[in-house]
């Protein structure tokens, strides 16, 4: 399926990450945006609104981030691709309805422009402090998909990808950006509408009276219908059967909730995308995502110039975590260096998936600037000198 | 006798067009008023001249939160307090739909109070049915924002010290275009209010005072469901157009009912266009 050309602003543009995100959403066919004002995410809604009329999109500013995501879920069931944009404190409030979105298997996209926490933190500085919250923030067991863009171009591309994944797997998808990428201005190339692949909604096509809202296809994803089409379906956030009726026992919990996990886990190879550079001969691999990848790639070049064999693994998909690839690489390299703009979140996954086969160095990144490579370089140098594998994560100064 | 043998009798529930019969029996306790509110609503759906394919119903959490599951419409059982927010998304994304929120006082007025205020202020075109039983019943009888002063609940064993909220006054001052209150004894008037409100463009609120024999009545020693109905019979007064400021409900005090507000104001989706 190709996109509606009205939403696609074809051409080469000089855009901020936030504006590129809004353009990506419009290109993906997003026609409903609900937000609550928050720094540093609000430019996405402003850009979206500026273009809303010409593409026939709808917008509402809600009273808080709780209702924002609730409205997005409601809107999605009318057949409109729906999205919200927020930052850390807003993401915290959204966790309640993120769980509902998972349980109702409602396609939607949540863009999180991460800023520094905890609490009110530094709303105008970048961080990667919400990565674990995106994965585990709502109560109960579930799987989620999260992408991490590192440039305005990727803000555009990954927003489209997020909508596609969300429609395909019927799960809320998070675009985990940050203040740096959101406000960074770079060239963004928007291809013509017929060159953009769009995943259509997986509609039910059988007879009306035999529709079951949670009857799963082979790949465990159920089919949707829109409100107002005469199906008179029911869905509930309680544990439910195929009809969407609540069933309060363990058997139904297994029947209903286990597939929420397996519909993602069974297809991680189709979902996960990573970018690898110079991994073939690398002794040390820098594993990074989002804005930090910019410094990681530079540090890799600098290290190579000084004779250290360094590679880069950039995680475009952070959740589900590319554990198979990390485990494979751990057997080949001396060490991983993991720079993050937090106190160590994704590094925990890297360490887990290394299974003791490689050293894992954590680099607390960003205090000297997002594009500064000093601390990554020094970690890489340390890592290259280690000849035995040490337990646990090695913190770098 | 002959004809009786050959003709197959099929028992049909009179409201099976609007109720999900495969979900009956419902979960509500004997004497509970929610079933009556649902009956009145189902009757209104049948009588109102609306395309039932184009009506969505959303509930939050609690005893009344289960209503959406029993009504044969596109129906959603959502997070606690967020039914109005979820419904707002539906209405704004597809203004051709009629949206009904059916939930309890704790859900709509306590945890969902902010959404109630702002949906009324925006005048989102939806009917909000608030079943008020003065207590959190599903969790076993805790004090609610509607529990009358001095009434008992499990979390106020010496009587409630919090003045309760006046739901019609809140709706009125927040901008609702239609506000009415009835008890579950006044089924005919309640049904008529539902029909009027379904036809109304804008944020409409119908408060339904309902008995909760299992929790509210038991801890306050008010008898069973029938005793509460007798109480409603003897202690209610209809005052259409009454100033909503005067609609506070005291413990076992007089309950003023009627249609208090019926006015015109452009709805959100009308203004948006």
What is the strand and helix layout of this fold?
The complex is a heterodimer of chains A (397) and B (273).
Chain A lengths: L10 E6 H12 L1 E6 L6 H14 L2 E4 L3 H12 L4 E6 L1 H16 L4 E9 L5 E5 L4 H6 L8 E3 L4 H18 L2 E7 H5 L1 E6 L43 E3 L13 H16 L2 H4 L2 E4 L6 E5 L3 H14 L4 E6 L1 E3 L3 H8 L4 E6 L5 H9 L4 E6 L9 H12 L7 E3 L2
Parallel strand pairs in A: 2-3, 2-4, 4-5, 5-8, 7-8, 12-13, 12-15, 15-16, 16-17
Antiparallel strand pairs in A: 1-9, 5-6, 7-14, 11-13
Helix pairs in contact in A: 1-2, 1-6, 3-4, 10-13, 11-12
Chain B lengths: L1 H5 L27 H14 L7 E5 L7 H4 L3 E4 L5 H11 L4 E7 H7 L1 H10 L3 E7 L2 E2 L5 E2 L23 H8 L3 E6 L3 H13 L3 E7 L3 H7 L5 H11 E3 L16 E8 L5 H5 L1
Parallel strand pairs in B: 1-2, 1-3, 3-4, 4-8, 7-8, 9-10
Antiparallel strand pairs in B: 5-6, 7-10
Helix pairs in contact in B: 2-8, 5-6, 6-7
Shape of chain A: globular
- Cα(first) to Cα(last) distance of chain B is 65 Å
β-sheet strand percentage of chain A: 15-25%
Biggest interface, CB < 8 A:
A-B, 42 and 36 residues
Tally of helical segments of chain A: 13
